[in-house]
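note to self: dont lose this again. the chain is below, predicted strucutre after it. 377 aa total, dont forget to put it in the shared folder this time
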Amino acid sequence: MPFPPLVSPADDLGDDYVRAHAHQLILVEVGAAGQRRLRAGSVLVVGADEIGAPALTHLADAGVGRLGIVDGSPLHPWDQYAGLPGYTGTRAAAWTSTLQGVHPSLTITAYESRLSADNALELISDYDVVLYAGEDPAMCCLVDDACARLGKPFVWAGMEAAQGRVSVFWEQHGPTFRDLQPMPSPYFRGMAGALKALGGWLSAVMATETIKLLTGTGEPLVGRLMTYDAMSAHTSVVPLDRTPHVRPGKLTAAEPFFGLLSPAAADAARESTISAEELKVMLDNEVPLLLVDVREADEHAFADLPGSVLMPKKEFLEGDAALSLPQDRKVVLFCRMGIRSAEALAVVKKHGHPDAVHLGGGILAWADRVDPSLPRY
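---
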């Protein structure tokens, strides 16, 4: 159902702004009144990744007057969409510089940090809408709880392999993220890979939902979940129901790494994570160990650690791989980032290997800090 617009119209658009956004001004669904509301609107985007970054460009192109970007992650070589070759700062700073150069009338602020329980309320309170795309349940719950406390709508999207989901969570008007996912999920898109082109689709839908909220047009996905399966080209929209849950009295958020894991994996990894440097010392000193790669065969063939054996995570979670591990050597598990190996570690520890460990940061950490010649992916 339609909702009242979130913001009052701006008094004046300015000639340059009108020329830049004439295509929407003549659109019946937006019109001059809607464009004035977009000019007065503000959106906080948490995470300028493959979904959040293109969403920023859509919002800026639509004429949203003020944007905030929360992302302290360094700009990686594969973040080419930021348009700043050779830039070595954070994603937030890179996107701020890029968008301000293209949209002179846009007010944009970079928050070069991670959203946390300490700063969430302060940052979110200054914006009309919050946009976050992610599967980390700790971060999703943090944004959901902060938005619920402040009465702000939360536009969310999640990506799982080749499937995307989008919804608008708004405590006063319908179900929220805690209703969609009352129990933390062990899924993280780094575990099973992701179809990166899907991020563009999700970003466009999220930006469109935000525009509808700001202008009071159309029917936002409040209380509904849209799912898109890219492989079958099938899209569905289903209603969400309220579920019994209790919001914490104080905002909380797990530390970044453990927030991505199931509770069992987080417990296993908390005391049994070794660094790339520690693993190198063990290998250099010829410590008896079994180095187990829990990635998939194609990944193993592309980049590997010396002397490792391939045993995909599925063989631990759904099979009896843990029972086949030797007892006379220390078991060291690794994957790409340290997520899948932590999940496998929880199983291994339950089957007679209490001293098993896994490589924090995975093979990427090894490539960063031990062997820069190793291919990255």
